Amino acid sequence: MNCNDCVEKFDRYVDRELNNTEVLELKLHLEGCPPCADQYEFQASLKRLVKVCCDKDTAPAAFREKLRQILL
Amino acid sequence: MAESPARTAFAEEALTHLDVLYRGALRLTRDPDQAQDLVQEAYLRALRYQHSYQPGTNMKAWLFAIMRNLFWDRFKGSRKEDVSLDDVGEFVLYDKLRDEGAKPEADVLDKLAASEVVEAVEKLPPLHREVVLLVDVEGFSYKDAAQTLGVPIGTVMSRLHRARQQLQRSLFDYAVESGIVHRNGTGQVPQP
Questions:
Q1: A70, B38, B121, B136: which has the fewest Cβ within 10 Å?
Q2: Which stretch of DSSP H or E encloses residue B184?
Q3: How many angstroms away from the CA of B165 is the closest CA of chain A?
């Protein structure tokens, strides 16, 4: 696997969508290629950042209660 | 009005996904009141079509699909808002930051404000925003996201890729505007 093939798989790797063989190939490449490993770590951190920043919001308690009144 | 035990149990289970639906609606509408209206309508519709839900399947995805379909019904008239990201071109934030001489993770990611990240997500066209919400925020698989959105898996992947490109572009612009990184700089990063 070369660097282009590796980078091309980053989306699916961070999303856990690669099959076992692909994961193994990618891990092997990352172990021997610090620039790709750094870039992968950045991609993974960016995904984590989006999640952490966007999943803080929860439904307001009054709204939850209102829905319970309506639905139950 | 006394509800049947089956309906009550269904509603109880559906309500365990309220936060996911609310967050999704909030990001799609960008307005807490509209988000509540949308979610309430989605739950009422879900109860009305309870018979079409197959027990044991992914209820969260089923509810999200109802909510986002309602969103699109309401916004049909303004679909032009959903500009295509086909032409945004490749933008790799990591490379861009390295070119500017910054350490991408330590210098930039760690310094971005949460509100800016949320704003960058909300600036995405809705068709791309919803893929980011499902896959990145709520952890849906491509398959579940595709099913929720009613599109092929390939479409999920391409929308997600373009969305991430656009997101990185927005974050880079913010990093430059706020002085976290200097455009065309020589590796200068402001010291705390």
A1: A70
A2: none
A3: 11
